[in-house]
Design a protein that fits this description.
With about 240 residues, this protein is an alpha/beta fold. The chain is built from eight helices and nine strands.
Length: about 240
């Protein structure tokens, strides 16, 4: 049974239209990884270009104590600094793919066909596709083998328009998450209040709204992974000779 999860990170270091740093929101990988590692799963880290992944300095300004502990863990940070290239990823090795957020991914994930192919293969092999915050842009253009969008007709979430405005970043971005999801036929959902935890689950697609939702996404992914293992055991048991 596959017990590997692929974590996708962004290589984008700055806003193209402003001299302002961006990159991976550190907590979005740390808090997800902590949950998955604790449950015995193996994680591989990949990025569109491979190699170094910049950390959004704002994510350090808002870091939890656990984020700082991982930030000072040389072994973990070396893995973030030496990510796999997408072209070197074999999707057959993974039971789930998780798109970590950070504004940088808006310029990298949506049109990356290799990333879409990896995601489609994992999903169509009964795997899980998950994201948090802006990581949902990696799901926008994934099409299944029948040509339909993965997210069409599904309840999904991501960083809201209101949250972008409150963060004073809405004018710097190439896309509005809510609008792009709607264009692909997704049903956008969000929390009643900004910057509160919220996750949407639609079959094997799990999405989280913001940085506050990371652990919720991780727990939902783990639930689906456990259900998958149980289903495989039941299938094997029913097919075993008596």
């Amino acid at each position: 049974m596959r017990d590997n999860v692929l974590v996708v990170l962004t290589n984008q270091a700055k806003y193209p239209n402003r001299n302002r740093a961006t990159g991976l929101w550190l907590g979005m990988v740390v808090r997800f990884a902590e949950r998955l590692y604790a449950s015995g799963y193996t994680l591989d880290y990949a990025s569109c270009q491979g190699g170094y992944v910049p950390i959004d300095p704002e994510s350090l300004a808002q870091a939890e104590e656990m984020d700082w502990q991982w930030y000072q863990d040389r072994k973990f940070m070396n893995r973030i600094g030496c990510t796999l290239k997408l072209e070197d990823v074999n999707p057959d090795n993974y039971k789930a793919i998780y798109f970590a957020g950070g504004h940088g991914c808006l310029w990298e994930y949506p049109d990356n066909e290799t990333l879409q192919n990896i995601s489609r293969t994992i999903y169509e092999h009964d795997g899980i596709v998950a994201s948090v915050c802006h990581g949902v842009c990696g799901l926008w253009n994934i099409k299944l083998s029948d040509g339909t969008y993965l997210i069409a007709g599904r309840e999904v979430t991501g960083f809201s328009r209101e949250e972008e405005k409150l963060a004073d970043l809405d004018q710097l971005l190439p896309f509005a998450t809510e609008d792009e999801l709607a264009k692909r036929g997704a049903i956008y959902r969000k929390a009643d209040r900004p910057f509160t935890p919220f996750a949407a689950v639609s079959e094997r697609v799990v999405t989280g709204q913001n940085a506050q939702s990371i652990r919720l996404v991780a727990d939902k992914v783990l639930e689906l992974l456990i259900e998958s293992v149980k289903s495989q055991i039941e299938i094997q048991s029913s097919s075993a000779p008596t």
